[in-house]
Specification:
alpha+beta; Ubiquitin-like (UB roll); Creatine Kinase, Chain A, domain 2; nine-stranded mixed sheet; five-stranded mixed sheet; 11 helices; 14 strands; binds adenosine-5'-diphosphate; binds manganese (II) ion
């Protein structure tokens, strides 16, 4: 083991009262993640026991130089798979010094929606399928693709194996285990239709925790790609032409959907989603119009459709749900770069409130 690696693995368990907490927040683009570390007394398992902190918003595109302090409030806590031991990752949301959520803080409004008694009573669950693409550093071209050229057409790559079909499996798999270690409820991973594109699923997770977990899963993924010297992209249509885009299908159910007669509740929810199709589309990620063309397993963004087993629909209901008369549905519209605080809260807002 190298000296660097030895030092990185020093066991701080020997000093159980001291932990390193990595505070994570969303930067000015609304999709970039930032983080910094501090030493605290530990162990800590409850975000409410962690101190608030601050950062320089003028360096993240979130404030002007004069009055640049932004406060961050710890909201969710995870075990740190990089530092291990009792060290933690802390998902925060961001406020002005007077306590107002800043524009990129979509969590604050989502938390309000999720605390509405009608929403609490319906115990909403989410399963989010996060697709992403791995790129070669510096050349801005997918991992495993010949630089300046293309691999063979799509077909053999989805759930594929082999050095000519699966590019970056160690990253996808390292991420899977790191997330489970952290306490993120990953239900599975798979290689996607476009080579060098992968998917992981977070869920089922109840309420706002689904979005907290998805953001931290993204954070862990970009840290792993950093170690691997590979660049992570959430662009919804990275390569124009006959190559699949990247989405974040959002599977959803409420208590009444999961109980007998639930399929009728699902159909009612879908009709409510139909009426607000435009609002949802405009909140489902930047550049999604490049992806939702009606081709490559998507529905055209200008039309709302649903169907059982239909991968060309806006909303898909699975075979099991139809057969059992209860279960969940899949909103296939969200782009890979969507903000899960926005998407998850908007779905309950439209279908329950
Ligand atoms: P697909 O067939 O579209 O590829 P996946 O298997 O990738 O679907 O993802 C489905 C996700 O839905 C998983 O994360 C799963 O845990 C989640 N899920 C399962 N049951 C429910 C439910 N009742 N409510 C919400 N999400 C659910
Ligand atoms: Mn999937
Ligand atoms: Mn997929
Ligand atoms: Mn899906």
């Amino acid at each position: 083991m190298s000296l660097l690696s030895n030092l990185l693995h020093i066991d701080l368990f020997k000093n159980p009262n001291q932990i390193i907490a990595e505070y994570i927040w969303i930067g000015g683009s609304g999709t970039d993640l930032r983080s910094k570390a501090r030493t605290l007394e530990g162990p800590v398992f409850d975000p409410a026991k962690l101190p608030k902190w601050n950062y320089d918003g003028s360096s993240t595109g979130q404030a002007t130089g004069k009055d640049s302090e932004i406060l961050i409030y710890p909201q969710a806590i995870f075990k740190d798979p990089f530092r291990k031991g009792k060290n933690v990752l802390v998902m925060c949301d961001a406020y002005t010094p007077t306590g107002k959520p800043i524009p990129t803080n979509k969590r604050s409004k989502a938390a309000e929606i999720f605390s509405h008694p009608k929403v609490v009573a319906e115990a909403p669950w989410y399963g989010i399928e996060q697709e992403y693409t791995l790129l070669q550093k510096d050349v801005d071209w997918p991992l495993g693709w010949p630089v300046g050229g293309f691999p063979g057409p799509q077909g053999p790559y989805y759930c594929g194996i082999g050095a000519d079909k699966a590019f970056g499996r160690d990253i996808a798999d390292a991420h899977y285990k790191a997330c489970l270690f952290a306490g993120i409820n990953i239900s599975g991973i798979n290689a996607e239709v476009m080579p060098s594109q992968w998917e992981f699923q977070v869920g089922p997770v109840a309420g706002i925790a689904a979005a907290d977990q998805l953001w931290v899963a993204r954070y862990i993924l970009e840290r792993i790609t950093e170690i691997a010297g590979v660049v992570l992209s959430f662009d919804p249509k990275l390569i124009p032409g006959d190559w699949n885009g990247a989405g974040a299908h959002t599977n959803f159910s409420t208590k009444s959907m999961r109980e007998d007669g639930g399929f009728n509740v699902i159909k009612e929810a879908i009709e409510k989603l139909r009426l607000r199709h435009k609002e949802h589309i405009s909140a489902y990620g930047d550049g999604n119009e490049r992806r939702l063309t009606g081709n490559h397993e998507t529905a055209n963004m200008h039309t709302f459709s649903w169907g059982v087993l239909d991968r060309g629909a806006s909303i898909r209901v699975g075979r099991e749900t139809e057969k059992n008369g209860k279960g969940y549905f899949e909103d296939r519209r969200p782009a890979s770069n969507m903000d899960p605080y926005v998407v998850t809260s908007m779905i309950v807002e439209t279908t329950i409130l």
